[in-house]
Description:
CATH architecture: 3-Layer(aba) Sandwich
Structural class: alpha/beta
Strand order of the largest sheet: 3-2-1-4-5-6-7
Number of helices: 9
Number of domains: 1
Distance between the termini: 34 Å
Strand content: 15-25%
Helix content: 40-55%
CATH topology: Rossmann fold
Mean pLDDT: 98
Largest sheet: 7 strands, parallel
Order of helices and strands: EHEHEHEHEHHEHHHE
Radius of gyration: 17 Å
Bound molecules: NADPH dihydro-nicotinamide-adenine-dinucleotide phosphate
Amino acid sequence: MKLTGKTAVITGGNKGIGAACALAFSREGANVVIAARNMSDSNRIVEQIISEGGKAAAIAADVSDHEQVKNMISRTVEMFGKIDILINNAGIIADSFINKMTLEQWDKVIATNLTGTFYCIREAVPYMIENGYGRIINTSSVAARKGAVAQSNYAASKAGIIGMTLSLAQELGKYNITVNAVAPGYVATDMTSNLPEKIMERANKVIPVKRFGTPEEMAAAFLYLASDEAAYCNGAVLDINGGLSL
Ligand code: NDP
């Protein structure tokens, strides 16, 4: 098992890519904390992990709220004694052409995706420094690499995450804390389930492997970056998109 004795916080771990990470990490021996807003979704994943013999807890937290993040991180340490791995996966979209994008759509996406990632890292890092160990893995997107029509807010948030990842990899390496990112392409989750049929068809045509990715395929990349096998991987952005960014 790759993560025995480790404690992992996974934001947005109650569905989609985050839930696949929670299950994969638990199956490799990690204690898992699921931090998201919807507790019934979170409890469902916690119950699944416990039924498989793993250890997990759900903590309600809106990552765009600093007080809630602070509380979630300190409760994790109270429960499990430390934080070894932080997966910043919580994210939203609020698509619109720029001339119609409301200030609220802009602010909400930046607050959740970018500022939420900052809050979680800021609160977790002191515990990681104290512990002399940390693996931080952020979630970017193919939209950060190529942009996307009607996603200027989302692409800006995900490109910001790459800049934050590269900066913190340099800042925190000396504490034995690595900072990397995964940049998924189209993945079959709730986030993409409402895409118009025409866009789905076009996406499947342009993706070199001709299909959407699965949450489990994304979780495999997060797991690699969280494992000791990736100890020398710092400041990397893994593009897991079937070749879409080429
Ligand atoms: P889902 O919509 O399936 O899940 C999103 C998760 O984020 C949920 O667990 C949700 O939980 C949580 N979340 C949303 N807002 C907040 C918040 N304010 N505070 C805490 N948790 C929050 O999305 P995916 O699994 O598809 O996406 C996961 C990540 O991967 C996101 O960062 C996304 O941008 C990124 N990504 C996804 C792609 C895709 O094609 N699916 C492509 C590229 C990147 P709750 O609502 O209970 O809070």
